[in-house]
């Protein structure tokens, strides 16, 4: 008998990495319940690559040095490996979580659906969405943290999401009844755990206590955000330094307080999509107070912040020393 399939499309900054890490760590418990979380990759981006019209443009392939025939071969191999894993485990339910699914257009989504329909008895799509205002603030953090944009530019012209077009694309292909649009729990009162919420929506509520939730990709403190912004100006290679980007969340201290004028811009830019989420999907988010004055920059640097910065620099220095030692020990190539 064919299993059912739950496809989680990973909208950025909605807990996707936490869900994926937790499910992979709990794959043994899931298997005992007849549920397969494929071991191919933690993040099933290979699905996106396999159905993109131009997979060579996808960072997933570019960063792996794949192109042309190598990309086609990789896509073919991963899909075959997925089928083999499903056949070997004979589950009742397969959970696929593919970040970057948001990149697929309607024709590519349709091709993915045809492939899935041939292998599964029933299909469901689960998409989490954030409060569009909170999503914009998170996008600013992410862009500055990755060295992709300066903080001042983001504050003047904040990035915003386009949930309606995304949801319409997936609902248009899979059908409205097959696509569940849910609020990211981190934006809700009490902030329920996102992994527990996902398991419950997958019909696995009895496993919530057995599969621990593993937090990932925490936001930066105010000091961490200002440090990342300064690095973008003085260190051109910062945007390629993944190690440093992973270390920045370790900088402790109060969160960054966004200026009221920036919040007002975001509220205005996201009004249409907020209205859409409430009208079409019953998701109403809290009102945003745009009158809170931001603190002076120096208030972000508390004693615990200075201590965490010292530890960060010490850690990075040790990494550099170890890398130098490794190069010295390896010696010149024969």
Q: Main sheet? A: 5 strands, parallel
Q: Could you give the distance between the termini? A: 57 Å
SSE string: EHHEHHHEHEHHHEHHHHHH
Average predicted local confidence, pLDDT: 91
The largest beta-sheet arranges its strands as: 2-3-1-4-5
Sum up the overall morphology in one term.
globular
Q: Catalogue the unreliable spans.
A: none
Please state the structural category: alpha/beta
If helices are DSSP runs of H or I spanning 4 or more residues, what is the number of helices?
A: 15
Strand portion, in percent?
A: 5-15%
Total beta-strand segments: 5
Share of helix among residues? 40-55%
Radius of gyration: 22 Å
Q: Can you lay out the helices and strands and say which pair or pack?
A:
Layout: E1 4-10, H1 16-25, H2 27-32, E2 35-36, H3 46-51, H4 59-62, H5 69-89, E3 93-99, H6 106-117, E4 123-129, H7 132-145, H8 151-156, H9 163-174, E5 179-183, H10 194-201, H11 222-234, H12 242-247, H13 260-269, H14 271-281, H15 303-330
Parallel strand pairs: 1-3, 1-4, 2-3, 4-5
Structure description:
This protein is an alpha/beta fold and 334 residues long. The mean pLDDT is 91. It is globular and about 60 Å long. Helices cover 50% and strands 8% of the residues. The N and C termini lie far apart (57 Å). The protein contains 15 helices and 5 strands. The longest helix is centred in the last third of the chain and has 28 residues, at 303-330.
Please provide a brief summary of the model.
By secondary structure, the chain is an alpha/beta fold.
């Amino acid at each position: 008998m064919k299993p059912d399939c739950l496809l989680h499309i990973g909208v950025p900054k909605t807990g996707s990495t936490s869900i994926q890490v937790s499910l992979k760590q709990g794959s043994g418990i899931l298997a005992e319940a007849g549920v397969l979380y494929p071991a191919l990759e933690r993040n099933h981006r290979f699905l996106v690559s396999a159905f993109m019209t131009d997979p060579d443009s996808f960072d997933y392939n570019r960063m792996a040095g794949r192109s042309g025939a190598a990309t086609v071969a990789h896509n073919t191999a991963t899909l075959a490996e997925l089928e083999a894993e499903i056949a070997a485990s004979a589950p009742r339910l397969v959970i696929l979580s593919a970040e970057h699914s948001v990149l697929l257009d309607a024709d590519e989504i349709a091709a993915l659906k045809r492939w899935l329909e041939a292998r599964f008895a029933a299909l469901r799509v689960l998409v989490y969405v954030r409060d569009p205002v909170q999503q914009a603030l998170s996008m600013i953090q992410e862009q500055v943290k990755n060295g992709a944009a300066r903080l001042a530019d983001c504050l003047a012209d904040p990035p915003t999401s386009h949930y309606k077009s995304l949801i319409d694309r997936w609902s248009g292909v899979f059908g409205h009844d097959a696509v569940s649009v849910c609020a990211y729990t981190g934006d809700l009162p009490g902030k329920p755990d996102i992994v527990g919420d996902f398991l419950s929506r997958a019909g696995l509520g009895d496993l919530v206590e057995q599969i621990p939730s593993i937090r990932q990709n925490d936001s930066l403190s105010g000091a961490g955000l200002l440090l990342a912004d300064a690095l973008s100006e003085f260190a051109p290679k910062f945007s390629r330094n993944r190690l440093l980007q992973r270390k920045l969340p370790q900088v402790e201290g109060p969160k960054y307080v966004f200026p009221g004028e920036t919040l007002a811009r975001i509220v205005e830019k996201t009004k249409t999509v907020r209205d859409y989420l409430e009208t079409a999907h019953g998701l109403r988010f809290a009102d945003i107070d745009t009158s809170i004055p931001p603190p002076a920059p120096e208030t972000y640097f508390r004693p615990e912040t200075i201590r965490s910065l010292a530890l960060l620099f010490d850690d990075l220095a040790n990494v550099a020393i170890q890398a130098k030692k490794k190069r010295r020990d390896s010696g010149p190539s024969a």
